[in-house]
Amino acid sequence: MSFKDIIGQNRAWTILQNTLRNGSVGHAYLFFGPEGIGKRLTAITFAKALNCLNEKGDSCDECNSCRKIEGGNHPDVIIINPEGVYIKIEQIRRLQRMVNFKVYEGRRKVVILDSINEMTDEASNSFLKTLEEPPDETILILLSTNIHTLLPTIISRCQGIRFNLLPVESIMEVLIKKKGVGIEEARLIASLSNGRLGKAISIDIETTLKDRGDAFSILSDPLAEGVCSIFSKADIWAKDGDNIHDLLDHLSNLCRDIAILKSSRNHDFIVNLDMIDELRLLSERLSFSTVQNIFQTVQNTIIFLKKNANLHLSIEVMMMRIGEEMGYL
């Protein structure tokens, strides 16, 4: 895959391609933006372009170097992912040993650190030493979903490149042309993906609609029977741990859509357009402050779970607070 094949991030890859053509490649880059919009794909494409044997300011996808990087077995391209929840100091120490070796067969050694936000404080402080004095011929690429949680010293030592959410039309085009999805289904998937192509491609529409229905039921009536129904629903959601973030995303989007319906006649930003009649009825029942507080409760739960909080307890607390907001407790 070359730069031109990266959907919706023309500004980002144009900057990178210009640095290649001008011979002004920096030692460290920070790619930041929401998850699933092409940061990792762009980083790998940049690594290929830096080491492409055809030297065209892009990846050719045909030379031995490009094929090795695409296959994940090039000795000079290192990708660091979290081990478990975090990138740990042991990983950074291993990285520091590896980058001190000379380039083995490429022109540049490229290190891609994915999910840099999940780096422990110890690892961040240790990594700063590498960032301040990077070895010759080594390019560091950091991938972040939220630069506001990074150390300012890390941000200041990198060239930042923003990645943006994709418009619905761009995602629809990919789904229709490359996945053979029908127009209406593509529109729904694109809308539910919240501008993230990676998520759109991975969506199973039947599972997604079922999950959304479960999330919608939280706002409609099942919690009305009180504490027993609240704990029962919490048990069901907590047992579905692998899917919990999708359920919480659906609940967040539904709250957001209801808030939009209560405050604006502009439906352009509504995610669940196919449910607009049901959402409108809910918007008449719920106050703006109630919807806002439920949304914040869900967001807090997402944050707690990312910090490895107890799943069952977090969901129970969330359900209780939603029940309180809706007047069931």
Low-confidence stretches: none
Kindly name the structural category: alpha/beta
Secondary structure tally: strands: 5
Q: Report the order of strands and helices.
A: HEHHEHEHEHEHHHHHHHHH
CATH architectural grouping of the largest domain: 3-Layer(aba) Sandwich
Radius of gyration equals 23 Å
- Beta-strand share of residues: 5-15%
Major sheet summary line: 5 strands, parallel
CATH class of the largest domain: Alpha Beta
- Write down the overall mean pLDDT: 90
How far apart, in Å, are the first and last alpha carbons?
55 Å
Specify the number of helices. Answer: 15
- Overall, the morphology is globular
Tag the structure with descriptive keywords:
single chain, 329 residues, alpha/beta, Rossmann fold, Zinc Finger, Delta Prime, domain 3, 5-stranded parallel beta sheet, 8% strand, globular
Account of the protein in words:
There is one protein chain. This protein is α/β, with parallel strands linked by helices. The protein folds into 3 domains: 160 residues, Rossmann fold (3-Layer(aba) Sandwich), CATH 3.40.50.300; 37 residues; 122 residues, Zinc Finger, Delta Prime, domain 3 (Up-down Bundle), CATH 1.20.272. The protein is 56% helix and 8% strand. α4 links the parallel β2 and β3. α1 packs parallel to α2, α11 runs antiparallel to α15 and α12 crosses α13. The longest helix is centred in the last third of the chain and has 20 residues. The N and C termini lie far apart (55 Å). The model has no long low-confidence stretch (mean pLDDT 90).
